[in-house]
Give the backbone structure.
Amino acid sequence: MIDGYVIVSAVTLASIYGLLAIGISIIWSSLGMLNMAFGFTFAAAGYGAWYAAQQFPDSAAAVLAGGILTGALVGALVCAVAFIPLHDKPNFTVRALIATLAISLLGTQALLAVFGPRVKALPKVFGPKTFELTEDVVITADKLGSVASSIVLLLLVLAWMKTSRRGLEIRAMMQNPEGAALVGIGVRSTAFAVMAVTGALAGLAAVLLSQTYFVSPYSGLLPLIKGLIVALAGGLGSVSGALIAACLLGFVEAATSAVLGGQYVLITQFALIIAILLVRPRGIGGLLDETRE
Amino acid sequence: MQHEILKVSGLSAGYGPLRVLHDLDLSIHAGERVGIVGLNGHGKSTLFRAIAGLTDWQSGSVLLDGVEVGGKRSQGPGRHTHRIVRRGLALMPQGDAIFHGLTVAEHLDSGAYTTAAWRARRERREQVLEIFPPLRKLLDVPVGRLSGGERRMVSLGRGLMTDAKLYLVDEPSLGLAPKISKVMIDALMRINLDHGAMVIAEQNLSLLEGRVTRLLGMHGGKLKRGTDLPIGRNAAMEI
Amino acid sequence: MSAPEDTPVGGWRNPQLEHDPARAKVRPVLSAVGRRRWWFKLKGGGDRLWRRVRYPFTRRTVLRIRGEYNPKTLARERTVVDKRPIWWLIGLTLLAVLPPLSGNTSLLSAATIFAIYASINLVWMLIIGTAGIFSLATLAVVGASAYGAAWLSIQHGLPWWGMISTGAGLGLAFGVIVALPAIRLEGFYYALLTLGLVELCRVYVVQSKVFGSATGGLYGADTYVPEALQDSDGAVLLGYAAAFVMLLAMLGLYRLVNGQRLGRLLRTAREDEAFAEAVGIGYDRARVQVFLISSVALGAIGGFYASHFKGVSPSIFSTDQLLLMLAMIVIGGIGTAEGAVVGTLIVVLLDKLLIEWGPMRLVLIGLIMLGTVLFTRGGLFGIKSQFRAWRERRKSERRAARTEKGGEVVPEEATDIHDKQAIYYRRQDKLIRDYLRTLVTDELIEEHRRKPLGQHSEALERVLNYFRRGPVPDKYAVMAIKPFEAYRVVALAGRRGVPPRLVDDRVYPTLEEAYHAVFLRRVNDLLES
């Protein structure tokens, strides 16, 4: 039953899940905050891309740029509202979780009030072409484009985290915030940078996913939950763990919908995650850390 | 008289209801190496933390190279620390290295975080490795797996990665064997200060005696300068 | 009569006979002290204090009353330490009376929804506040039992009382499943997992034919409203009465779990988990017990929900509903029963009164929730203590900034010191020390070094007299290691049975040198203060 089609859709899902989870993972590891407003960022970026498409109907770049820019902007906004006032207050983690949930509630409702409940469709960014990999596996251009662009972006982010000054900054902050201040790292400016970059990632993911799904006020919910559970299974804060979990869950989803049917996808995914977490309460990333020790 | 790097006047600071520093005055000039000697709990570390803006509250003026970095503050410890650090302060805190999960090389690089220093970090790292040769073999090892002495070297080396105007070294010998303490102080003495200055807080007077430009005593949150006091009071100080 | 030749006399002036312009100019500094807390005092006391109202069959009093003497008039008076029972009584009476009296059916049905949500939130508060498990699956448990009960009622004709009890059983089963990961996972991992579980339930119910994917929910379950009352105002009134009784039951459950053994165990254990385990408190066990008890209660509420609405729709699993419930407990303040009830009241009122605003009313609720979490530590009911803590912090910081080491008592501190004599003692002590400090000179120290014992000059005698009077704790003393050969300086502990501690490692060959060393230490301390 595991044929080319399953593998193709597994890779597609894995790359998009990776894109969703990596943002949540980076924010958790550097800022110590669970960004539940990620879904709102996603939906708002979808509307941003849609608005850009209305303004410049023929330009694929404008659609992408609209989504990414809106995502970055909303990310910075969430940072300004939820992280900056709270980050040195007592009980920060729980309060930031609740604050981002509140942003998610009011943001979604505001989108609903402004744009209405009707879904919007985005133009095809990568054109209508199709490619035949083998005789029975046909892949559309938008699928190929989204897989390629998300893999490229993921690799870029990984390389950036490992080698650049900003990446070191993020990892230093995750280790010891006071120590980070002592080497001259400003928590607030770093937070803005991190939230804008992850917001841009969410924006890109929104544009890519909206090639298949539609843009609606609630369209961020499922990506949020998928991103969260992938990040969770990967071990919160572990980027490589999140990528492994994305591959695993993408494959499980593709296999489940091929073998059992679409409505069992969430159930098998959850069974897998609970199994992972019962064995390793800190996820796959925790496993990696321990073997390294 | 040399150019004044640090001028602290009327500095009081503390944590919550506890007041640790009492109207403290201090002035450090370029090229000086100053030792601050005092027992545990008399405010040496708090003085350093107050200069870096890390205490719960503080009042009084702190001029770092002529720029006011102190002032009255009752909240937000550490909120301005990174700005003070960028003005040329290198604080090497008491105890361990600060980032346990980073490797030695990354840890040293993090010390050169400011834009200007980041470009020159490789040359700078070489210089630090010359001061602390044992670190050369350990560059790829996570800091958490080093021994106490090696960690202290990393911590000091991290502070030396930038051309700071003012180095504040908090208890470089704490918890180390006497021999290694000596090595640490020797390394600190070998550093070329140029136009900067260095303040070393230490409990062990004998490690610093005769090797620093000036020696100050700290007692109950106040500074006592040895040379300024009359002989009788000085004798009382030495006990 | 002239003084003996070796008694120095020079250098001392009597300060009382001299005019010091600097001292004459000193004006007292008046600074804001702040008010002390005001308490409402009841008159009387004596035997009236002992005639307290107690809950039947227990020793627990309804009101905690403290008897005391008024420090000024010395009259007996009583203070109500915890006024919350009074507020509960007033609030619950109003809730019981006002909605039925208003005669407004829509208000009454809104009040019914409030009572149901408040019951759910109370139980949720047990899970989050008492057990410390950040679970978002509360509504999932309610919804699952409601679906189960409704399905059984529709398919197998289960009566309404059966629905409530089956609901409780289903809640327990669901709770066991949900509690399994809670033992292993840390707070946030668990919160995220349960959020996913809610979504899983919603997707499953929406897609499942058995649970009415075609009709948008399960409808037609049995209800506790009798046939005769159906679709009349009486049905609404009965609904409110039933929901209110359930709210009271859940309040009782909250009190029982949070205020009794389990709650106390958990509150103790939260301070230090490892220590609690070491002294035999089964922390995890107690948490799971609370979770399971709560799940049973949630299941019962689910059964009631299904029988009240004669069915259930998938919207109970929607994220918006979940966030709305979270808004309720966050606004009220996590960890208190009154927070759960009042928060629910505020949100339900906004939600029902501003119904014509459409989605904007949820935006408003979101804004209130955001504001609450940004500015308060414990919601509405934490504001008072947060304000007090803030004021205390400012007060103590200001006090610390002005306190001089060994100086006078600052006014804020003086209001807190009960023994007023201590204040005047400190003031006198400071005056003396300020004066003695002016006497310490090199000659004085030299004089003591030459002759630690015997007759001294006036100034040295004054200094030594002050030192002799010092309090025993931390007083320096000489310890003979070997008489006439080796002495050391020690500091007395000042407590019976605690040996003195060594001050340094110096050894003095003669007693005189040791005396002088003690003197130097005391002079040093005098100059420092």
Notes: Strands of chain B lie at 4-15, 18-29, 33-38, 57-64, 67-68, 89-92, 166-170, 197-202, 214-219, 222-225. The interface with chain A takes residues 52, 54, 76-79, 81-83, 85-86, 91, 93, 98-102, 106, 109-111, 113-114, 118, 158 of chain B (CB under 8 Å). The longest helix of chain B spans residues 178-190.
